[in-house]
Fold these 2 entries.
Entry 1:
Amino acid sequence: MDKAELMTLAIQLRKDLGEDSSSPIDIFAIAKGIEGLSIVYYPMGDNLSGMCVKGSDNNCVIGINSGMSLGRQRFSLAHEFYHKYYDKTMVSLCGKKIGSGKGKEKEADLFASFFLMPNDELIKKTHACSVKNPRGNLTLSDIIRIEQFFLVSHKATVIRLAENRLITQSEADQYLQMSVRTLAESMGYDGDLYRALPPEKQYRTYGSYVETADRLLKLNLISEGKYESLLLDAFRPDLVYGETDGGDLID
Ligand SMILES: [Zn+2]
């Protein structure tokens, strides 16, 4: 598939999932509402960013390497959407380095980029930033504004800006070497985009798996003990033992 086709697919999927074709989106929340989809957050070490395992009847498990930054996890999830919806492969294991894969991996990276940063909006945003600069170029602060707007990792943003020729390749090479969290925080942004979650929060399962376990229990098809063990296997002790950090607020 070429870039134009991937761009069209990305916009179409946004619409199919009830989103518009331009705004920043909360991909974590969207994923939790997709029928038959379970999402497992797990620290997968140094080689994988995520995986997608398809089963029968539209069932699918997407694994996300939760040891990576939050911005990168959002990109990984969009990448796995490509495998879920447009790749016939039943099991996909995805490498860590954005843009370095070939074939389907490269397509999935481009799809993820178009899905999270729709082209028209990216160009509009970029123009709004660069027009304020005397040389009409994008500064590092502008790039931070753009990645914080779309909530995508620094690396994914820089690669996309270079891909669109909105910055030069040598600027991209330079920006890719920079750690930007401190600068982003000094600009008033939250640094979470550039951080992984604390280790105790890196293990979680959401979506269909949890809902199915609950349904089986309510239908008396599994015992309370089996339900609890299924949830504990899925890193959801909070659902078995209750939250330890206070109750709900209805406000
Ligand atoms: Zn992949």
Note: Residues 66 and 201 are 9 Å apart (CA to CA).
Entry 2:
Amino acid sequence: MALASSTATPRTTSSLPTPPMLDGGLPFIGHALDLRRNPVELLQRGRDRYGDLFTLRLPGSPSTVVMTGPKAQQKFFRLRDSEMSMREVYKLMIPIFGKGIAYDAEPEIMKEQLGFFHEALRESRLRTYAQGFVEEAEDFFGKWGDEGVVDLYETGNELTIYTSSRSLLGRSFRESLSDEFAKLYYDMEGGLNLLAFFAPHLPIPAFRKRDRARKRLGELISTIVADRRAKGLKEEDFLQTVMEATYSNGRSPTEDEMTGLLLAIMFAGHHTSGITFAWTGILLAQHPQWIERLRAEQGRVLGDKSTLELDDLRGMTELEWVVKETLRLYPPIILVMRRMLEGFDFGGYHVPKDSMVMASPAVGHRIPEVFTNPNRFEPDRFGPEREEDRKHPMSWISFGGGRHRCMGIVFAQLQLRAIWSHLLRNFDFELIEPRYEPSYDRMLVGPRSPCRARYRRRKTKTTVAVPG
Ligand code: HEM
């Protein structure tokens, strides 16, 4: 799409103009209210009007430049750590993760911490996690009756608390303390609101609860660490990885850092996966022909096997396309941001130092020049005949891109495939609400509540067990 000419004032550091300012907005708060109400509509309006780059007015930032379209998205995701900072964007997480963890750490330290996650996500671990996903799904859905009504959003979030806590802290923790863990986790989440951006330590009940929960979780983790060390136990989970990790200067993470790192990975992967579970269910129920295709695939992949293993999950290609298409239409992270430490020129414009820059999977995924029939559910677009996501690098950006691309892609995909493999084989389901729409009330965008579906257990027994 052509870039429109700017009406904004040229800057001294570059002869190029800054990206055009989107009209509308209010005095003092600019476009903040529109962004809060329906961010996707606002960003789409800007793109329709100006193309790949335009500017929003938001409080607390001299300007916010929105970058959509494959080329602009590529530029965004290729920004180097020395050119931009993610700290401001994620600062509301600091009271939860702790000081000096992830985006609050110096870039070099953050890189090392992210390296610990790489280690926790290596191939041999994936096998253990996959086994956990399958067992958790069997256990969770095994408790469902022959028929009933469930809220898909709540179901996804509950089940992924179990799968995440198991992969993070191990099976014995998951079995003994899952209720307390879930409660602490919700109390921490309750502290994630707009106020936390501006005054994260105000003495309000939500922040006090958040801090109490964080402290208690730290105590629980210290107990597990002490127990493992005393008994010489080694588990296949994230905690074990951070217990054994060392920074390049030879220092081991403190127990407080271990807690922060575990929380960082938990917050990155929990709701994002839960939301994707819910949308997958909604879209499948709306497109029953795909349920049939996926059941046929289950038959092909599993045959009459009595076990379900990592390689089987990997072989579920059409289920993979369905999850990818779900994430294209309804990415839980609808926008990502950085603050520029340096200015740059791109697409005929100058983006000044100190601007915020923003990319949007939700808008980028519905560009008709990239994705044919962008508003339609067509998982085949990822198949060998169309491969639409390969035409432009960084056009499908549900997991971000470049050096900060999501580390949990494989983990999330395997988890969702394990859960949906079980559901497809064991349940029929139909939708109840007249409409299922995204809700922009939370930072991670899922379907608006209620989001119910009716399920019925299928007569044919197709449950497979994990290898013993
Ligand atoms: C469907 C599920 C998920 C979605 C849609 C998702 C999406 C994303 C996105 C868009 C980013 C980039 C953020 C940015 O550029 O500012 C990201 C980063 C990240 N994600 Fe995920 N994620 C998911 C699941 C997971 C899981 C399960 C884990 C861990 C097990 C995880 C761990 C991470 C980490 C560690 C980063 C930071 C990478 C870095 O900054 O270098 N994510 N994710």
Note: The pocket of protoporphyrin IX containing FE is lined by residues 114, 117, 265, 268-269, 272-273, 276, 327, 332-333, 336, 398-400, 404, 406-408, 411-412 (CB under 6 Å).
